[in-house]
Predict the structure.
Amino acid sequence: MTIKQNRKQKLRKETPRPASPVVDYLIIGNGVAGMNCALSIRQHDREGTLTILTHEPVPFYSRPLIVDVMTGKKRKEDIILVQDEEYKRNRITLLKDVRVEKLDRKTRSVRTQEGVFFYKKLLIATGAEPKTIPLTGTGIFSLRTIQDAEVIARYLKHVKRAIVYGGGPVGIKAAYALLTAGIPVSIIVTSPHILSRVLDETVAIRFQKLFESHGATFYLQREIEDREGRSALKGVITDRGERIPGDILIVGKGVEPDLALIRDTEIKAGKGIVVNDKMETNCENIYAAGDVAEAPLSAHHYPLTTSLSPLTNQVISLWHVGASQGRVAGTNMAGSTCVYEGGVGSNSIEYFGLKCISMGTLKDTGTEEITIEENSVYRKYIFQEERLIGAVLLDDVTDAGTLLHAIRKGLPVKSHLLRHPLTPYPLRGTESISMEVLF
Amino acid sequence: MREIFFIKERCVECGACKAACIAEHKKNYSLYSPVSSLPMARKRREDSGKKPPDSALPHPVRCVHCEIPLCKEACISGSIGVADRVYNKWDKCVGCFMCIMNCPYGAILPFFNKAVRCDECLFTEKPACVRACPQNALIFVEADEFSEKEKKRRWKERIEKEIPLMKAKA
């Protein structure tokens, strides 16, 4: 027996090691979460090898600004945030145009067309894919990557009238970019008012009127049934039988997490990959962050009495949430400890000079709403008992950060806010900076 | 790290700090052109327009220059940089106001379609407002140093007030 075992061991030793070396930190996805993770690892660990795999042919760019590339307001080089030299300086290996095919947890490897990569710690930051509609053919585009934007930019030269499907932040932003480029837009929205998940009705209607005065047409509570035009798009037909003319259809129906990589693995997933407050998945040494992760909400934000318990996980597809998740994941991967405080859904929008910031929960049971309207300033606070859980600020957006901080930490600020509704940060500057009020 | 502190009792509301701030952040360092040109040069100081409940005096809205700046994480255009202090790059800002939404101190202000903060005048020994203040109401010192000075100053004031009273009683 012993001899046999020895032989076996010898055989094992003699089997050739895989050609590709083991990477200390492997990151799949070069979005905001992946990039922030890489930079955060480099802050804690200067030595370990770090590789980022991405299916896109460009280095890290700003995804929210691709609408400006679409209309030609900005060049492609302008929105690239981290140049190739900076990757080299931080000793990060960026492999572009690499699609990850399979994840093998037992051998700790990732298979791509370029070869097999072995990892010690892995971050999955594959992001999200835009929701598609059953219609196909030329003239129908979704807007997610910089390549999409470039393809649309080429197509837009022959476009006289555009259709945007979806009244979410993506759709409205695309519509705004087209309007500023001088192309009239028809916007088809499924819900009763635009930006229904972001804004309340009063503000949404104000934005809708602003868009209409600049040449947009809204079709609310409608869905697209069919397309018109065989080769090139000439228009669409809604479920109410209306015919809306247009040469291009941009679909902005939102995004959903890209879970193709983990479909046949043991990694637990609901809507996205379930992670704890250190961004770890249920498998060892595998982390997830960004649009693909389903992270716990801010524990302070949702008290037990609401429909959402503090243990609820949720996918929040926002730039700054992805960034902070990436930072937390990177710190934990590098060996230090950092706890994710939980994200709060918040959006900042600015169209035709009208600024608006909305944050937190806007519709929930057992809440109290307080609206303040003073010469063109509109503010709405949503309280639950003593806590602030949501707010909408229109036009005057100063101090929005302090309100978001109060929501994130669940601070009892109601009595103070009722006394000074427009100055949430009371003791600013002067000798009496007493931080106990807010911190 | 040194910070700007404001001593309320010394302020006479001359507004020299505001003018100096505007001039400092305009490239040619003159006062007349930034005040008269449109859009105006950056003004990084809050003044009495908003009227905080406690005082209507002009005072600096300070950036704390956090170790992990949340504003930098939120910035979509890469316009916020960190070099010892946190600063905004004026030409790169696209006016999305994500940084304003994320700063827990409310230290970033919207100015037309750009976000603006006090960067304590990068690459200078003292911020312009501190240099300009004729009353020494604005001082640029370490936090510990300020609290010690403040204690001494208050003690001195109290004595100055109380000694005449005691004399009168006697």
